[in-house]
# Entry
Amino acid sequence: MPNIVVVGMQWGDEGKGKIIDLLTPSVDLVVRFQGGANAGHTVVVDGKKSVLHLVPSGILHERCSCVIGNGVALDPSSLISEIEGLVAGGFLSDSGRLSISERAHLVMPYHKVIDALREQALGGASIGTTGRGIGPCYEDKAARLGLRAGELVDFASFRESLREVMQFKNSQIAELGGEPLDVEKMAAEAKIWSDRLSSHIVDTDFIIHSHISSGKNILFEGAQGAMLDVDHGTYPFVTSSNTAAGAACTGSGIGPTAIDDVMGIAKAYTTRVGNGPFPTELDDEIGEYMQEKGGEVGATTGRKRRCGWFDAVVARHAARINGVTKLTITKLDVLSGLKKLKVCIGYRINGRIFEFLPSVASRFDRIEPVYEELPGWEEDISAAKKISDLPSSAVAYLNRMEELIGAEISVVSVGVERSSSIVVKDPFSA
# Structure
């Protein structure tokens, strides 16, 4: 049975949560493998919206189990709030459906303080982080100063580790101009985490590999998007983790041979939250139209998303670094009402045309997008159930996207509801 990695092909917010929710009826296990509470997946079922930051989107299906993998930067307070919301909403009556890797690193209060102080110090040159402490958490992981979820189970040992780490962290905070944090107050908060989460914290490697050995279907769920990858994105305006499909291996404890397919998710246009390069950004009435009609407000930050034309250069780059074998296009319905559409097929830099993404940030300032124009459509497509229900110009637009990206479309989303999706080819069919 297939194991599929789902990744975003732009700067995040591509609609991964909805697509994972759509596919979950065919899935036994959903594994979140990187990122933290800086990500947000929004799912709408029967008009009811659920926003998930840490818990995999598959939790909305009663028969599906979910894993928060070792590659996730885990904010315990945020997770507890999320769990309580799911229980109250009737989505998590069986606590055994959610497992947390013992190896997942904890986002501590000092990480958030350091994150905020650094952004403040950078002023106008700030990266535009969510302030959730994700970057500092990953820094500590690499520096071998991190505290992991498994340590919460033995709280006496955790308390001692916390005291040792805080000697260094408070000095770091002081250097940044902040006030030292109370260690005992933090320990008291951590005891709440321990009491509430210890039953979920297990060796998730065993769970995942048991599903693989049994031939069950697994979805590996990424956060953010390929263009925010710390290595392959628009550095330094990126997140602090690897968002590409390869991180599914290191972030969950599987080998590459366990992955059968990679599904890339892209909007029919392009959006970005926060600072950083955005070659096709539209600072005009069309950009405002996309923002308003698409409801382009960050699920995590509440910030309006920057909007622009579809960037095929970005999408091709994402397809290459992720090894995309299946493609999903979301929010096609947002383009309804636009008489003409544009697709960026290349970048003009100093008079030369490039069909690949620059790796140096300064080159983005010199980019002039090279556009191809396509006809739009007026019709409302939100009720479409198959490709033949779409206007011919919408079909032509999708076909051109396939050509430019180099992957076949499996799913097209034409509305916010789970049911507002056209399954061109079932990703789990042979």
